[in-house]
Specification:
This protein is an alpha+beta fold and 632 residues long. It is built from 17 helices and 17 strands. A hairpin with a 2-residue loop joins strand 3 and strand 4. The longest helix is centred in the first third of the chain and has 50 residues. The chain is elongated and about 150 Å long.
Amino acid sequence: ANIIPTCRSHSKMSTPEEAAAADPAITALTEQISKLGVSIAEAKQAKKPKEEWDPLLKEMLALKLEYKAKTGQEYGPKKEEKKPKGDDSQEASEKNKEKRAKKAAEKAAKEEKKRKQREERERIQREKLEKLKSAANEDWSHVFGDAPMIQSATKSEEGVNKWTRIETLSKEMEGKKVLVRGFLHTARGVGKGAFVLIRSSLYTVQCVAFESKDIPSAMIKYMNGVPVESIVDVYGTLTVPANPVEGATQSLVEVQVEKFHCVHKATAAMPFQMEDACRPDLVKETDVGAYDHEANASAEGGRVGQETRLDHRWIDLRTPANQSIFRVQSMVCTLFREYLLSQNFIEIHTPKLLSGASEGGADVFTLDYFGKPACLSMSPQLHKQMAAACGGFERVFEIGPVFRAENSNTRRHLCEFTGLDLEMAIVEHYDEVLDVLGDLFVYIFDGLKEKCGPELQRVKEQHGFEDLKYLKKTLKIDYATGCKLLREAGVDQGDYDDLSTENEKKLGDIVKEKYDTDFFIMDKYPLDVRPFYTMPDPNNPKLSNSYDVFIRGQEILSGAQRVHEPELLVERARAWGIDVETIASYVDSFRNGALPHGGGGIGLERVVMLYLGLPNIRKSSMFPRDPRRISP
């Protein structure tokens, strides 16, 4: 039987073109596959997502399967037949030989390159060793090392102007040669370089050196090895770094070191690290109440205890915060003096050695004065009155030491402090004194804001505090009003009872909330709680013409109109149980005519403590004296 095939038989494989020519159906199928192939290629070339051309691919694969079913062969060009082995094997062998020769040549070239690189490294190392040997034999003392002891043997023509103060370094000085002196705050070695931070008073600058032909490796090692807190001189070029230097006050510049000398080396072990002494306070301490010396000997969180600081005060004073505190203290004295001089006051200096063993019955430090009993002055009170009211100077002030033999271990009491005292004649009313006091403190507060900006910022960084609020026209309330405010706040306070420290603090909070000020004056205190020489109130014998000044709820000045009538003075002394014979010279000074007068005494350390929001008066006393401490 004749069998009709469904497709043509082929003695050998045909191409899609050949198959299409023999069968129109195959032709149409081939064209479809070809078009799909072109579309897919264009989509891939255009970098279209696969999701767009994947359906075309699946359709093309299906058509290729149909093509294979109809033609009996794969769609695509014919595969080339392998050449039979024969003479071509010799040709292949020759090609392999060439490849092997080429690889051998490349390997030899690589080995030669390695050899040359090794020889170059050895040459550089030899030169380096020779350079180090030469440097070791060279005298580098003019570049680095311990400087000779300064004994005032010589002086340069430039003198002190040869040095540049760190605080003046700025980017406007870029490229300038500078010589700075200060404490070595930190030293850090990085590879072949040294990074040191130099500190002078409040200010620090980073100095950098790297090993070079002019900077031997021995200098880098020396810089990294000088003990911290040593005094060093650094000479170099001032540059502006790409990024501000963290941890330096002069952050926009740094010194590229050319010379580095140690002026005086710190040889004793540090009792604490300066980084620890500069750490910000963990918590805000209370500024009232008892002070426990033992509890303050140490601190948590890598910080330094208050007693440890005071035992080594000469080191503790170097911190930027402490440098700032005592610069603020100095400015308070300057402004106090400036203002009073502008108001026709004159500065006086009264004796601190007084006859007798007591000053009006108060606790004083007694001593033997060539066989006679004597004591240290607890106030210039008597002598400033003699000068202003009896001596005719009318307006006087003094800045000097005050001694109190009070066994008070609190956060706000000292056995020795600096008194800012003033006394002035009045014409008709002690409000004249209060006007001077109010304007005086406003002048001081304004001056501190204007002149101590950097110092206030440094204190805030370690002992965060709120800026003092005060009124240009100082608030004045009387004692009865203060007591009423306390009672309205639920505090038990009588109009004729003395104010406790806690109630003073509470009153300060009430006044700030009500009047938006941390600073105020309160007058008309009960007569029984004031000194014997205080003038009684003419309208209420239970009250007095006295006053206190407060900062942040704590008293910083106590004053009054003084009694200038001798007989009334004697009467008041006897009411206090004071032996009049012990104050005879004081009373007698008013028998030859005396001006009506008043004044007050200010505690410098307490003013600074409260203005800066410090929790302890020992922080504002350079070398504090309390019942437990009399050194250093």
